[in-house]
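To the structural biology subgroup,

Please find below the input and predicted structure for Ribose transport system substrate-binding protein, which we are adding to the shared reference set this quarter. The sequence is reproduced verbatim from the submission form. If anyone notices a discrepancy with their own records, reply to this email rather than editing the shared folder directly, so we keep one authoritative version.
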Amino acid sequence: MAGARPAAVALLLAATALAGCERGSSHLPGVSPTGPGGCPAAQAEARTAVSRAERGDVPWGGPTGGPAAVPGKTIVYVAQTMTNPGVAGVAQGVREAARVIGWNVRVIDGEGTPAGIQAALGEAVSLRPSGIVLGGFDPGSTSQQVARATAAHIPLVGWHAVASPGPSTDPPLFTNVTTDVDAVAGISARWVIARSHGNAGVVLFTDASIPFARHKSDLIAQGLAACSGVRLLANENIPIPDASSRTPREVSVLLSRFGSRWTHSVAINDLYFADAAPAFRAAGEKGSGPPFNIGAGDGDPSAFQRINSGQYQAATVPEPLTLQGWQILDEFNRAFSGRPASGYVAPVHVSTAGNSAGAMTWNPSGYREAYRKIWGG
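Predicted structure (tokenized):
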């Protein structure tokens, strides 16, 4: 991949990426890297950051104190769609933690459509539970139902509901549980820079209908633009509910369009690579790459299976899904006790076949013991 890359083109590429995308695909012109290895300074910074994020010995850094369990509570988990492995993984963590703290949990599936999510949250409010989880959807799309919950004094805890972790006043969330989206996006881009030695042609997969996801993909594009030898070939907007039907077709088109220029991919959710695998396989692409694919969330078991077996995914930046389910219940317990949110944000991590040791999930160690001790279990 030789040739010159004028600075003006690089600036235009970065500005285009940050502008976001609308429904459909946004294809960006390919250009060639500049300088030895593309971007020596950015490479060095990326290698250091990725090495740190790949460490496996991550101790518990969350709360060690808090209120004892408040008995007899019922939580409703409203899922954006249970076909989203991250949403489903957190739901499983909530159920697991509920058995420990002694609460009841009900899951209502919004099935991935605005009408379905609105109906699911409306049903949740009508049940008058102790608390409601907004699992992976924008509260702005359910403003009437959120207002009803607030009027009924039902605490709301989000998971990937807004862009930042922690409490929110607009929308009114006791807290939002997520890793830091800037850190996740940044390490995903740095992984590409480090893995490619500063020379890459990248396809980015996102869902621009979800503000959280769109913000993440904008940040990833910004991070990639830090390296002059990395080209953003295409920014593919595929809504998550449509991923299974649209991704294989889009991947086939991308392979035909870019061929060997497509060396790496980043997706805001691992599920895109599950849906892309048949198209890669049909085109005769090796499971071990290229393209080398990294998911900037969510680190569900199927992603680990692809990574560990070398089947069309090389890495993931996993959400600690089970831990986050436990954290959600701990945050509710703080709300019921009149205490502030914990403020805990799980650390960013990169999982590969080389550091996962065959595991199918990633969570920092010690969280179960810590929460049991806090709750008095």
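Summary notes: The domain at 7-56+181-316 is CATH 3.40.50.2300 (Rossmann fold). The chain has a mean pLDDT of 89.

Regards,
Lab coordination
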